Amino acid sequence: MKNIPSFMIFLVIVMGAGISIGTLTIPGDWYASLNKPFFNPPNWIFGPVWSVLYLFIAYVGWRVWLFDSTGLLVPLWILQMALNFLWSPVFFVAQKPAMALFVVLCLLLSVAAFIRAAWHIDRQSAVLFFPYAAWVGFASTLNASIVYLN
């Protein structure tokens, strides 16, 4: 119970930053004009998916901060968070899909590195990053397809 305030801090930071970036980088006319692959999901799906993923990401960040604050997991968690928050401005604001593809592939690698590093230290955190890795893998494929089609 005594750790709930620290979890709430992680939750507010991760969800708040995610919501802020999502709000500030809403897809506009440029994105609407792009050729997209047949598997491009409707725009409304991204908000709910990211909300659940950010909840997991915040919880995992909190866990590694509590249980492995001097190890490799905290820097890996921070790295994936920075890359995560960088992608939308690069793709939607700078309108650089190829550069965004590089960012999302680096994000995918950092999530995979986190899972690998966490597997023997904090298996629960590693497992909670599986859906995140799957979604980032899908996002990488989608981003690559947009680069290819445009």
Automatic annotation (TrEMBL):
CDD domains, per the entry:
TSPO_MBR (cd15904)
Where does it localize? Membrane
Membrane topology classification: Multi-pass membrane protein
Main site of residence?
Answer: membrane
One Gene Ontology cellular component annotation held by this UniProt entry:
membrane
GO terms, biological process: tetrapyrrole metabolic process
Keywords attached to this entry: Membrane, Transmembrane, Transmembrane helix
Can you tell which superkingdom this protein's organism belongs to?
Bacteria
Q: Cite the InterPro entries for this sequence.
A: TspO/MBR-related_sf, TspO_MBR
**The keyword Membrane appears for this protein:** yes
- Give yes or no: UniProt keyword Ligase: no
- What are the transmembrane regions? 7-25, 45-65, 72-92, 98-119, 126-149
Family membership noted in the UniProt record: Belongs to the TspO/BZRP family.
The name under which this protein is listed is: Tryptophan-rich sensory protein
**Protein species of origin:** Shimia litoralis
